[in-house]
Amino acid sequence: MAYETLIVEIEDYIALIKLNRPEALNALNSKMLGELATVLQAADANDKVRCIVITGSEKAFAAGADIKEMAEQSFVDAYTANLFGGISDAILEIRKPIIAAVSGYALGGGCELAMACDFIIAADTAKFGQPEINLGVIAGFGGSQRLTRFVGKSKSMDMHLTGRNMDAAEAERCGLVSRVVPAKSLIEEAMKAATKITEKSLITAMAAKEAVNRSYETTLREGLLFERRLFHSMFATEDQKEGMAAFLEKRTPQFRDR
Ligand code: CAA
């Protein structure tokens, strides 16, 4: 299927989704948000996809929500359309792992989209920021909540109140991104990480994602119980038998997602 604002390739069990509005530094307009939700849902339901990678261009992962589209909107427009609510909810429902491969600007909604993915691999050129305050608004796609959980209150406040950008080195130092790679090898490195994930049991990868995400939703005690129950349930899978047998037999496991 062809999209107006995205380029989507599915190969070797990886769905590579490239944000593609170069004329606006991949600003997230309503068309792109709708297409992104549709593609993510389709990838989640597609047996030929075991991991999803979202990326942008060399200059910009995404420079935020589309300011031209938002400029004249009223409260009623934003509230009625549930601006950013659709994608925010949709991405939470995706059960397969999603990697954000970020080069250049990831600002406002762009930073928030990256943070809504399961982890971020950043090019050394990446710049993260929540500059909404400069526009007379605040973050609307999770920035105040996710950035605070990732980097702590002080740095999150600094980012949201001053609107300054963070470079890739700072983002790695404070735990916003999992690793920084040279810009020219960003896609290669993201695809390598995705390939590693495709080689695991999908059931186990989904359970790991579910368990980690639960840590953001609950108390430690409840989270530990949730993890333990999920861990116990893994013993009902054939892939647990295969994974452990393969280890003991010193061979590569042949997972069957069962
Ligand atoms: N929305 C719409 N268009 C945008 C855009 C955005 N967020 N960001 C960039 N563009 C457009 C520019 O208007 C420009 O278009 P024209 O050539 O037609 O004028 C084109 O992309 C190239 O941008 P610049 O000329 O500005 O490029 P630059 O290299 O000089 O600067 C930049 C790059 C620093 C990223 C700058 O474009 C910028 O500050 N962009 C806005 C960043 C921002 O404020 N993002 C937050 C948006 S609000 C939000 O995201 C709310 C939320 O939480 C959901």
UniProtKB/TrEMBL annotation:
Catalytic activity: a (3S)-3-hydroxyacyl-CoA = a (2E)-enoyl-CoA + H2O; a 4-saturated-(3S)-3-hydroxyacyl-CoA = a (3E)-enoyl-CoA + H2O
Organism of provenance: Pseudorhodobacter antarcticus
Protein name: enoyl-CoA hydratase
Lineage top rank: taxon: Bacteria
Transmembrane spans: none
InterPro entries tied to this protein: ClpP/crotonase-like_dom_sf, Enoyl-CoA_hyd/isom_CS, Enoyl-CoA_hydra/iso, Enoyl-CoA_hydra_C
SUPFAM superfamilies hit by this protein: ClpP/crotonase
Entry's family note: Belongs to the enoyl-CoA hydratase/isomerase family.
A Pfam family that the UniProt record links to this protein: ECH_1
Keyword Phosphoprotein listed: no
Keywords tagged on the record: Fatty acid metabolism, Lipid metabolism, Lyase
GO biological process, one term: fatty acid beta-oxidation
EC number: 4.2.1.17
Annotated function: Could possibly oxidize fatty acids using specific components.
GO molecular function list: enoyl-CoA hydratase activity
